[in-house]
UniProtKB/TrEMBL annotation:
Domain Calcineurin-like phosphoesterase residue range list: 22-224
Protein name: Metallophosphoesterase
Taxonomic superkingdom: Bacteria
Any Gene Ontology CC annotation: membrane
Pfam family, one: Metallophos
Keyword Hydrolase: yes
Key words of the record: Hydrolase, Metal-binding
GO BP term, pick one: lipid A biosynthetic process
Length: 259
């Protein structure tokens, strides 16, 4: 006599892995007044391929609000949230506040020490500043003008730290992305003349990335630098300046990163 078959429980269906948040990033787009119509296709394509767009400074070419007006019109084609920081070019004509105001809208977020959460990913950002890297980093010594230069980098690093810390306080355990214009590490400015490295970024900007367990950092500014590097603690850093992406063979100048 055959034993009665034992009832077996059907395995529970496996839960689908959560879909990653796809980030597109580019810096140094340097929009000019003559660029009307040039960027519409870019914003349409990036909206199809990514969930969030990071613009890592130097949004305008000469720092004029009129250039930002052109960019604002082009960005109407962008249907995904945009996170921005300003760059040195955007400050050149002292119209950076007008540039910011011109581009702000519901889905455009400017960061200058602030933080924003989009699709359960936290973003904190600052422009950053120069000062050099590692053992060649400029110290707080000498003339008042020299100390003021160093203090600017210190202040930018403190703002970045505050924004990242705020994310942890308000959203414990959230994945964090840092957005800069200036470089936080030397590796991503390699390729630029060594004499100008101190003006391309500062190691002080890397300290908050390591202390706050940032997942990745994106910056621009160094047009002939290197695409990818890491902080001392292994935080991934990407130099997404538009000329670097073009040289690397990207069909459209944006870098994609999944969180």
């Amino acid at each position: 006599m055959q034993p009665a078959p034992q009832a077996t429980e059907a395995p529970a269906p496996a839960e689908a892995a959560p879909k990653p948040v796809r980030i597109a990033a580019v810096g140094d787009i340097h929009v000019r007044e003559t660029d009307k119509g040039k960027w519409v296709d870019f914003f349409k394509v990036v909206s199809e391929q990514a969930d969030v767009l990071l613009l890592c400074g130097d949004l305008t070419d000469h720092g004029y609000a009129k250039e930002a007006e052109v960019l604002a019109e082009e960005m109407r084609a962008c249907t995904i949230p945009v996170v921005c920081v300003l760059g040195n070019h955007d400050h050149d004509k002292h119209e950076h506040e007008k540039i910011r105001d011109c581009l702000l809208r519901d889905n455009v977020h400017f960061l200058d020490g602030e933080a924003v959460v989009i699709k359960n990913v936290g973003f904190a950002g600052v422009k950053g500043f120069g000062g050099g890297f590692d053992k060649y980093m400029l110290s707080m010594f000498g003339e008042a003008s020299n100390k003021a230069f160093v203090q600017e980098a210190v202040d930018e690093a403190l703002k970045l730290e505050a924004g990242l810390a705020r994310l942890d306080t308000e959203h414990p355990g959230i994945k964090k992305i840092a957005v800069l214009h200036y470089a936080p590490i030397k590796a991503t400015v390699e390729g630029e003349p060594e004499a100008i490295h101190p003006f391309l970024g500062c190691s002080r900007l890397a300290e908050p990335l390591d202390r706050q367990n940032v997942l990745a950092c994106f910056h621009g500014h160094a047009h002939v630098g290197t695409l990818e590097g890491e902080t001392h603690n292994g935080v991934k850093v990407f130099n997404v300046a538009k000329p670097i992406l073009q040289k690397a063979g990207f069909a459209l100048p944006f870098f994609l990163f999944d969180v």
